[in-house]
């Protein structure tokens, strides 16, 4: 099956008893056992496994061209599960322009447990590889990056990775429709399903997909031991969102291009970041490893923070709110919102300036989006 078909059918056969075409939401916390140690279909207690989550996990695995999927209560819960694969003394190599919450987890939580983190201020695989040491156990890559949409060459990082290190790619921005990191040599692909996969800004969820049984097994153990699982009802909503991912991503992409081109031609705008532009520094790599671009467009406004404030207040259709990837368009101010937990000097160095606005372009009629932007910029 091709990806768009897998999103709708993988792991979602009609219910064998009733024929229900949608996977029923199974809310039972416990399952009758037919004798000592005799379980039906492997279910005993819903934290360990339940049919709604299992079905979603199969869909997610197929969607990422992987073998094993795990669904978590949030993207950060999934990331914590990845970090549970490490031990004191291990090192993680990443870049600084990752999701702010990931940066916070890396710098404020896990150093306490003896894990150290190195952030390479470059997206060049050769530069990233220079940070690898004998202790490097995890390489954490986000591409396109948040919020500047830099592109990291996944296959080149995979080729340079030390033998015992795990390459994890946060694939939240691209979604599996546009990028499948496991096909490019990643060991794990990680998602905040809250964003494009869920697609409707109505759940918080996370996922990990891998082809490696030796990684899936401890992730499954951790999921049960720590309990950071996606609930049955939310599993249903994530699965329902995933069904329309292909058509949504096509519309996000075409709307984002229209918006990015409009912004590029506007005198109130200093710079536009969109990885679908041929003059974007990551364009060639994006072309090689991605099948398209999501609805993410960032811009620097002329006139600094006061203009940002006027612009944000001037928007009426585009909502000023955290998050991304939903059907509705959102604007956010990375400097204080998504990247508020990154120190100011570092934000300046990596380009998260005070005049930067990030747009998550939804699937509304593009003319209405342009009208809103035209008014706010005016
Ligand atoms: C939102 C986000 C996360 C965190 O996910 P939650 O579901 O909010 O916990 C991680 N990575 C990226 C790229 C994100 O956008």
Give the C-level CATH assignment of the largest domain: Alpha Beta
Q: Please report the total strand number as a whole number.
A: 12
Largest sheet: 7 strands, mixed
CATH topology type of the largest domain: Aspartate Aminotransferase, domain 2
- What CATH architecture of the largest domain do you see? 3-Layer(aba) Sandwich
Q: What would you call the structural class?
A: alpha/beta
Q: Taking Cα atoms only, what radius of gyration do you get, to the nearest Å?
A: 21 Å
Q: What ligands are attached or bound here? A: pyridoxal-5'-phosphate
Order of helices and strands: HHEHEHEHEHEHEEHHHEHEHEEHEH
State the main characteristics.
378 residues; alpha/beta; Aspartate Aminotransferase, domain 2; Aspartate Aminotransferase, domain 1; 2 domains; seven-stranded mixed beta sheet; five-stranded mixed beta sheet; 14 helices; globular; binds pyridoxal-5'-phosphate
Write the layout of secondary structure elements.
Elements: H1 3-9, H2 51-63, E1 68-72, H3 75-83, E2 91-94, H4 100-109, E3 116-119, H5 125-130, E4 136-142, H6 154-160, E5 166-170, H7 175-178, E6 188-192, E7 206-210, H8 213-226, H9 232-243, H10 245-264, E8 269-273, H11 283-289, E9 296-301, H12 304-314, E10 319-320, E11 330-332, H13 344-350, E12 356-360, H14 366-377
Helix pairs in contact: 1-2, 1-9, 2-9, 10-14, 12-14
This protein binds pyridoxal-5'-phosphate.
């Amino acid at each position: 099956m091709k990806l768009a078909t897998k999103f709708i059918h993988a792991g979602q056969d009609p219910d064998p008893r009733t024929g229900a075409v949608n996977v029923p939401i199974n809310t039972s916390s416990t399952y009758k056992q037919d004798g000592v140690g005799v379980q039906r279909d492997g279910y005993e207690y819903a934290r360990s496994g339940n049919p709604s989550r299992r079905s979603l996990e199969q869909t997610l695995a197929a969607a990422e061209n992987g073998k094993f999927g795990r669904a978590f209560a949030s993207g950060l819960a999934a990331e914590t599960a990845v970090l549970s694969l490490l031990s004191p003394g291990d090192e993680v190599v990443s870049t600084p322009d990752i999701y702010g919450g990931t940066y916070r987890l890396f710098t404020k939580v896990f150093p306490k447990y003896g894990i150290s983190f190195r952030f390479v201020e470059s997206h060049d695989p050769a530069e990233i590889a220079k940070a690898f040491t004998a202790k490097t156990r995890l390489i954490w890559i986000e591409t396109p990056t948040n919020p500047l949409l830099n592109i990291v060459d996944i296959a080149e990082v995979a080729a340079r990775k030390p033998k015992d290190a795990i390459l994890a790619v946060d694939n939240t921005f691209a979604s599996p429709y546009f990028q499948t990191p496991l096909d490019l040599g990643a060991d794990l692909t990680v998602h905040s399903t809250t964003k494009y996969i869920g697609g409707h800004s109505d759940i918080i969820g996370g996922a990990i997909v891998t082809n490696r049984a030796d990684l899936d097994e401890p992730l499954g153990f951790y999921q049960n031991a720590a309990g950071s699982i996606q609930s049955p009802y939310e599993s249903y909503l994530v699965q329902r969102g995933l069904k329309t991912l292909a058509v949504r991503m096509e519309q996000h992409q075409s709307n984002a291009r229209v918006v990015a081109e409009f912004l590029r031609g506007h005198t109130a705008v200093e710079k536009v970041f969109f990885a679908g532009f041929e003059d974007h520094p990551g364009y060639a790599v994006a072309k090689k490893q991605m099948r398209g671009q999501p609805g993410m467009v960032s811009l620097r406004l002329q006139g600094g923070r006061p203009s940002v404030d006027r612009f944000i207040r001037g928007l009426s259709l585009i909502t000023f709110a955290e998050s991304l990837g939903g059907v509705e368009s959102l604007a956010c101010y990375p400097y204080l919102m998504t990247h508020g937990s990154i120190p100011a000097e570092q934000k300046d160095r990596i380009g998260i300036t005070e005049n930067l606005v990030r747009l998550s372009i939804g699937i509304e009629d593009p003319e209405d989006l342009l009208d809103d932007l035209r008014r706010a910029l005016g």
